[in-house]
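Encode chain A's predicted structure.
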Amino acid sequence: MKAEILRMLRESGTYLSGQELCNKLGVSRTAVWKTINQLKEAGYRFDAAQNKGYRLKYAPDVVNAPELESLRETEWAGCEIHYFDCLDSTNIKAKELAEAGHPGGTLVVAERQTAGKGRRGRGWESPAGAGIFMTLLLKPEINPNNASMLTLVAALAVARAITEVTGEPAQIKWPNDIVIHGKKVCGILTEMSAQFDYINHIVIGIGINVHNESFPEEIAHMAGSLWTECGKSFRRADIIEKILEHFETYYGLFLETEDLVALQKEYNAMLVNLHAGVKVLDPKESFEGKAMGITRRGELIVDTWESRKLVSSGEVSVRGIYGYV
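Encoded structure for chain A:
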């Protein structure tokens, strides 16, 4: 009932009487009163006026299920929302839910993670109240060979969402880091369970530094947060909702062709690597060149002095963004 009351008050934009809430929800006035009090205890503030009812005055920066459900504008993304005060990893929990039969579109969100991880098994700091730690579960009927492109789809959705909410231009460091002013504010980790020709499930984990004010010395030169780069605070639930909206749109376009042909131009426009010098850290042989955008399959096009190469794996370091390491 918390989500329903919050949604109704948000949509009205003004006062709703207790009787209106009762009639729409099919509950007693006592039940509405109790729910309003529970929301007050959680940090929400309301204006209450005789003969007018309730008006939502302030919503705290929370990412629990009632808050996210009350904001949700998507068709399927976030169809189930599982919130936890603390998890080892939202990706791990999402995989457990997938195995238990939960549908594609299920969203897992945690206030804090104890074992968050990024690419190549690196740790991802996940302190309570500071960031967004979420995983979206997908069960697409696509060729497993095309699944890796979903990481780029997610990067585009996150960059668009952050830009929309903050007003600051978020960019993408190929393939899936989100940067503002050259500082990494978000990492994305996609994991898949598949048979030879069939995908069981895919989980896309997204970690965003939102309120972090500082970082350990060893990463301070490259890490940032929405607070450090934008100079103000943002409600995390608003960002999550916008991510889901944009992902649902971009994912639909991806499914039409199972490649990035419809997203290629928009992705390249947000690519911080575009026309920049890069060094590709290839296990066989590193090389340098200029990034020229992505192919329809998400490969990075790199022009060297002798040839054009397509990079589909390995790690790319961008001159002027993170340096060469």
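The chain has nine helices and 14 strands.
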